Amino acid sequence: MAFFIAGAQISALCGAADAATGCLVVDVSGLFSLEQAVLLMVPGSINDDVLAN
Questions:
Q1: Counting CB atoms within 10 angstroms of each CB, which of 18, 31, 49, 53 has the fewest?
Q2: What is the domain count for the chain?
Q3: How far, in Å, are 29, 50 from residue 39 at the CA level?
Q4: Residue 39 pLDDT
């Protein structure tokens, strides 16, 4: 599991590459938030079960 909190530029360079290897990537930049293939996690009992799948 990798957490990206360094901004969209770093997420664009490293996040997608890490995810392609099977790593679970959590990105707070919002860069991937509009992509349908990317799960949107909303913490705080909205959809916490997303991490379990």
A1: 53
A2: 1
A3: 14, 8
A4: 79
